[in-house]
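As described in the Methods, two query proteins were run sequentially through the folding procedure within a single session, without resetting any intermediate state between them. The first query and its resulting structure tokens are shown here.
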Amino acid sequence: MLYILSGPDDFSLAQSLEDIKRSTGDREMLATNTTTLEGQQMSLAEFSTACGAVPFLSEKRLVIVKGLMERFEPKGRTGRQRKSKQTDSERNGHKEIAECISNMPDSTILVLTESQVKGSNPLYKMISRQAVVKSFPLIRGTELKQWIEGLWPVR
């Protein structure tokens, strides 16, 4: 199972992640079967190993990757076209990651948490159809007022 959680509302995003954790079963076993990676620093091998590992004494394994999509966001160019310092493997790494995702066992729950995802992101384009995508924009105005009143009802 693949989830993409994105948006600037960190609170709602964190609540959604907690809901996913609760739905996976026993919290103690989940702690043993959870891996959290930083998308900007992780290697393809780390990602592949985490997603491909079999859960230990549990039915599910949870892999949380923070900020992976940012790695592949198209960079805007100003003035003359600048040469990119990225190598071909860094530019095209989204293909290998998408392949790992499509080959991960059914026992793995992969959650990608992002501050923002653009529709032009090449990794997002490749994996969004097989994911549960949830967006968490900031709430404002009357919607914010209703949310606050829901937390502390007026007596």
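Immediately afterward, the second query was submitted; its sequence and tokens are:
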Amino acid sequence: MPEGNIRESLRSCANSIENADLAKRLIAAEGHFEAAEKQYKDAAGISELFTLPSAEEVAGIVTLEEMKWLYKNKFAKLGSPCRWLYDRLRIKAKICPLCNCRPVGTLDHYLAQSSHPAFVLTPVNLVPACADCNKAKLASLASTKREQTLHPYFDTLPADTPWLKVEVTEEQPPGILYKAAPPGHWDGDLSARIVQHFEDFSLAALYAAQASSELAEMARTFSTTFAMYGAEGLRDYLSQQARDRRGGNPHSWKAALYEGLSFSDWFVNIGYKFVA
């Protein structure tokens, strides 16, 4: 969970603005913001954020446009007195928890600014993210539990079995196809959300591009290992690489890559030669 709460965010922003009327209205609506924050946490805890209704104002006295202005010009703007609140959230993760691949550079509103003004400055609604994931998500709204993407603060994936799989196609160079394949014994709603997350953030294309670079870097190692130990030796090497990477993250795209390669008879016998 992130540090801070909506009261801290509101008061910091209210103290930094020249518009005395807006500052007064923000403080007057503080109780409404805090009640909304509690409602958010309760709903997120049972994966039902989709049930929170959209709105155009907060407590009938603060508008959506005013909240968006506060976020852009006070909370997120470099050099602003409130920027430390933004940075405190952003630096909590180095790698984007939405794609588990690219570096964090921004904050993503899990519930969009454009439809949920009460959560524009709420820390639990602000997720460290890379710019690409932030842009990909935009203002999409889920209407059911299964349409929701994963929430890094509230959703924990079981570590017993990976959900990410790789299929190797017999091409020159080898084709790497990533698939979201949650185990059958997992909760059905969670599995559906993983698939939704995988699709919404275009992770198949992202991971395939990363895999291409990884294979190019490892091409010499594959050839050397085959020359010394043969196909089964190469398979053992690939399996060990998968296990090592699963130790740090059971759902790693690299672990899925090496596991998929180790399962491919074609790759360990001849396909490794075509890695470019």
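Residues 6-140 form one domain. We note this only descriptively and draw no conclusion about the first query from it.
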